[in-house]
Amino acid sequence: MATSAVSGVNSISCTTSISSISTFNNFRSKNPNLLLGRRSFLLYNWRRRSFYVSNVASDQKQKMKDSSSDEGFTLDVFQPDSTSVLSSIKYHAEFTPSFSPEKFELPKAYYATAESVRDMLIINWNATYDLNEKINAKQAYYLSMEFLQGRALLNAIGNLGLTGPYADALTKIGYSLEDVARQEPDAALGNGGLGRLASCFLDSMATLNYPAWGYGLRYRYGLFKQLITMDGQEEVAENWLEMGNPWEIVRNDISYPVKFYGKVIEGADGRKEWVGGEDITAVAYDVPIPGYKTKTTINLRLWSTKLAAEAFDLRAFNDGDHAKAYEAQKKAEKICYILYPGDDSLEGKTLRLKQQYTLCSASLQDIIARFERRSGNTVNWDQFPEKVAVQMNDTHPTLCIPEILRVLMDVKGLSWKQAWEITQRTVAYTNHTVLPEALEKWSLTLLRELLPRHVEIIAMIDEELLHTIVAEYGTEDLDLLQEKLNQMRILENVEIPSSVLELLIKFEEGKEQAEEPKVEETQEVEQQEGGKDDTKDEETEALKAETTAEEEETEVKKVEAEDPQAKIARIFGSDPNRQQVVRMANLCVVGGHAVNGVAEIHSEIVKKEVFNEFYELWPEKFQNKTNGVTPRRWLSFCNPELSDIITKWTGSDDWLVNTEKLAELRKFADNEELQSEWRKAKRSNKMKIVSLIKEKTGYVVSPDAMFDVQIKRIHEYKRQLLNIFGIVYRYKKMKEMSPEERKEKFVPRVCVFGGKAFATYVQAKRIVKFITDVGATVNHDPEIGDLLKVVFVPDYNVSVAEVLIPGSELSQHISTAGMEASGTSNMKFAMNGCLLIGTLDGANVEIREEVGEDNFFLFGAQAHEIAGLRKERAEGKFIPDPRFEEVKAFVRTGVFGPYNYEELIGSLEGNEGYGRADYFLVGKDFPDYIECQDKVDEAYRDQKKWTKMSILNTAGSSKFSSDRTIHQYARDIWQIEPVELP
């Protein structure tokens, strides 16, 4: 089949090329003022509908616009069909070769198909860019260290409404669209929910026609490719760019210098300048993001780092010192090698900071350059926030704040006051976590060495904040003031600036003078008390005589402590035994005009706990923006069978852009015909999971079992350990029963795990190892058979999720209450008719409200109880459930292999100490969890009831579209309006 496909491509492409050249020459002769390249004409001839012509020389482009209407030059053509699509694919197979010409196998078919789709996107992409430039619309810029895109081909074709023509075209050359799409590697630009959320947001921004861009880094190797071996998780470099990326376009004309180290000097005009140090270059790579059924195609700009050619040490190379010659180049390039390099070492910390600053510096330079270009000859910097909105996705892009200030003050010459006001009106911050380790703190010493000017600016922001706090809380109660400063300062354990110190000392001196009694008043009091004898009585003299030298010294210290300066130094001084750090989250809150959590419960925790002092000071800054997911990728494209059913029963496919329509399914939830169709679709998707598991792990599982899935980043707070302990308990009970008793008691289950543990997170990697060991034992136990299977799917990513989520029947979202900011996989599962078991944490709270309490399996302690339960544990009052102790003892017998799990189990024991005392309350919630799982079994036995619950979960997902979330961001934070192409 491949051979015939090759000959077909070569012969048909040649004929098409000759015909196209003849037609093109005829077209150009009739349009002498229009400079079109041959490829551009082929795009025109293929696309066959109206579009802006953008890929022409700039002078000709201007002539074209001048001679046309205000809307730009347009061509009236037709919607592409399978014939024109096939022609385009064959054209790229011949004229845009990424592979040798002898073969036309699946990888080559994928690249040719992707490039043909990209041609269509470029037309809309350029038109979107041109329109936004022309009307100078206010634009939002979304900065994120992660964009977990997933495969782009099916998403792009689906958004363009061309799934049918592409499927038909590929069938004609012997391939299926699905097989071609599977050739695409997942872009290794993210890790978990943070990056996937960013990608859903881009999809919604384009679909809703908002003028917006994403900014990130182009990681060469991403996080890592996960292998599961006998030793558990192993990491190898991700090779997603090995064969190139057909979706990206390098913009060699768009690059910016990024500086590290050096020193700060002050010019004669008082302006600061950052000089010397290490210079690299950030180069733009652009990726088109198409909207659904709209011409709007927005941009994801990714930065790659390199060294300018002139900086290469050619002399050292010619002298044979190749390592020295390459040193600077390697330093520059490695910034974009790995997502989240290990930061246990100073070198790792330095590299992470370099990554974060590269993202901020290159992006802000680009944003500012675009603002200046759009402004024309007169740039009014006060209008910058009226045209630019910068959203920081978590604390990674925090350096945006001092970077904007640096550029405005040092490069553009604005005053501190003006630059600070502009910055605060421009920047906003999304908080994604309450975990202390994720609220980044960076060593002041490291920051000062790497970014000396930025540390000066951060100190200015901190000083401004201190004056605000002093003005708010006064100086009457110095202990209260100290408490507020300790919680709110950006610079932790750093001496307070002289302007604030002088203010406090001056107040304290004035306070003491006011309190010191006047001489006349003292004499009057003494007279009223009968007066004082100038001659000390013998008793007083005796007491003084007994005063030792040590007591006198103590008295001197006491007096010194009451000296205003000494007193202020004692209360507000730094501790030389503690590290000086910069609190990036505090800087985000202070430097931006809006702070939002990502679920209702999370936003309340942000206000009441994480940033309570800031909330009391600036309540107007704090908002909630519950996360959402795109229904296109996460329902329509990954679950087409269920999507067709939804469209049939709701009457249209309007739910794809208005998920409120999903609620209409509620009135059909008891309909037997719908339930039958629903179960058939679920069964079909379960069969895909069966194939995936066989391909990835070698295990064979039964589609008749309940598919119970937990797929997310491996972390102790997400409590995969609670899940696997529940499975171990289930397995132990099965082993204690007869075959008849097992079948009576337990519903067959396939328990699926997926997710990556960070390479240096030892405890998380122990959890992965434990899950795989349990699976190896259970899955080979002939007594258990298909009644229980435990599978860890390696290298979890978006493409794996797109298979697992549609076929899942129970999904586990069991984090310790109050610790998950939102979660978005819970929304994806519910949207696909999967029932959830979980705690009242993150978006679980709102999902349960929407789908109905009876359709959600709830267990566990609630967020307001957690602190008390940890205190109870610390005081030694917690008594573990016997069933929990039973599981631990069972694991310690070695039933799951020779690996020593003492450290893992030990983390759940004791009352205090690092890595112990069951900080995430696995033992506390365990009995409630296994009892809730019994309720799951009971519900699953009644398939009619279960199917109804499944339908109601999809119906209740109407609130959780990223379209809805983006509308809220646009209205409440960015204040931007849609701009739709004609």
UniProtKB/TrEMBL annotation:
Its main location: plastid. Coiled coil: none annotated. InterPro entries: Glycg_phsphrylas, Glyco_trans_35, Pyridoxal_P_attach_site. Keywords: Allosteric enzyme, Amyloplast, Carbohydrate metabolism, Chloroplast, Glycosyltransferase, Plastid, Pyridoxal phosphate, Transferase, Transit peptide. Its EC number is 2.4.1.1. It is found in: Plastid, Amyloplast; Plastid, Chloroplast. The keyword Transit peptide applies. SUPFAM superfamilies: UDP-Glycosyltransferase/glycogen phosphorylase (SSF53756). It catalyses: [(1->4)-alpha-D-glucosyl](n) + phosphate = [(1->4)-alpha-D-glucosyl](n-1) + alpha-D-glucose 1-phosphate. The keyword rRNA-binding does not apply. Residues 512-521 have a biased composition (Basic and acidic residues). Residues 512-561 are annotated as: Disordered. GO terms for biological process: glycogen catabolic process. Its cofactor is pyridoxal 5'-phosphate. GO terms for molecular function: glycogen phosphorylase activity; pyridoxal phosphate binding. It is an enzyme of class 2 (transferase). Pfam families: Phosphorylase. GO terms for cellular component: amyloplast; chloroplast. The modification N6-(pyridoxal phosphate)lysine is found at residue 828. Phosphorylase is an important allosteric enzyme in carbohydrate metabolism. Enzymes from different sources differ in their regulatory mechanisms and in their natural substrates. However, all known phosphorylases share catalytic and structural properties. Belongs to the glycogen phosphorylase family. This is Alpha-1,4 glucan phosphorylase. The lineage of its organism: Eukaryota, Viridiplantae, Streptophyta, Embryophyta, Tracheophyta.
